[in-house]
Amino acid sequence: MAEVALKTKRIRHTAGAALLAAALATLALQGGCATAPVSKANAQEVLLESWLLGHYDNRAQVATDRKHGGYVHPAVSAVVVRVESLMVGEHVLYMQLSDTDDPTHLTEQFIISFEVLKDKIVEAVWAFSDPKRWKNGADSPEVFSALQPADLKLLQGCSLEWKKSAEELKFTAANDQKLCHSTPLSAPAAVSAHWRIELTADELGIAEQAFDSDGDLVYGTEQEPFIRLRKRSNTAL
């Protein structure tokens, strides 16, 4: 068993190195031969974006919940697409979550942007001033090229720092709960928010929790807080 585990670990490490090498090659081709050497963080950011793009749902998680009884996670679908917005930045995506049983009911819509700062991948999150105006954005991402400053609000203090596991083909991200005060409207007592994300090539896990001034959980769940979304199809990088 130990030998099998060691072989599996080596395979994962080799696959991860190959993926990073491919990302580095892509950046080199895009930037040309005269550009400065590409950092490991920049290569990881390219890989992160390529994994994040796609269509997801958590049907498997919901089915498992119902089979075992107890808490059943809400049925959620998600779409992440690349968008062009010079106003926001160079690496910009649109992300929406919806009710799987009622796809027209969008529960969350965000613009997210990535930037490498001091060899760290940092994600900024932007909320829409009028979300309904952009409800068809996943089908027509070109509409986001018209974004103006009044259309978005940067969620100050809620940026997430992404890290890639050295041994697993997995990214993780989290914000600083003490700094993030963009809390759900459905939890008026909340004063801070904690967001966590786990990402592999075929699964996206999202955990959202909010706490009151006493540190008590008022939004989200303590047991298995992650909504586990499996990728059903890809979108082009």
Describe it.
This protein has 237 residues and is of the alpha+beta class. The chain has a single domain (2-233), classed as Beta Barrel (Lipocalin), CATH 2.40.128. 22% of the residues lie in helices and 36% in strands. The protein has three helices and twelve strands; from the N terminus they run H-H-E-H-E-E-E-E-E-E-E-E-E-E-E. Strands 1-2-3-4-5-7-8-9-10-12 form a ten-stranded antiparallel β-barrel. Strand 7 (160-164) and strand 8 form a beta hairpin. Helix 1 packs across helix 2. The longest helix has 30 residues, at 2-31. 27% of the residues are buried.
How much is the average pLDDT?
A: 87
Rg, rounded, reads 19 Å
How many strands? Answer: 12
Kindly report the CATH topology.
Lipocalin
Summed up:
The chain is α+β, with helices and mostly antiparallel strands. The chain has three helices and twelve strands; from the N terminus they run ααβαβββββββββββ. The protein has one domain: Lipocalin.
Q: What keyword list fits this structure?
A:
alpha+beta; 3 helices; ten-stranded antiparallel barrel; about 240 residues; globular; about 20% helix; Lipocalin
Topology record:
Elements: H1 2-31, H2 40-52, E1 54-57, H3 59-68, E2 76-82, E3 91-99, E4 102-117, E5 120-128, E6 152-154, E7 160-164, E8 171-175, E9 192-199, E10 203-211, E11 217-219, E12 226-233
Antiparallel strand pairs: 1-2, 1-12, 2-3, 3-4, 4-5, 5-6, 5-7, 7-8, 8-9, 9-10, 10-11, 10-12
Helix pairs in contact: 1-2
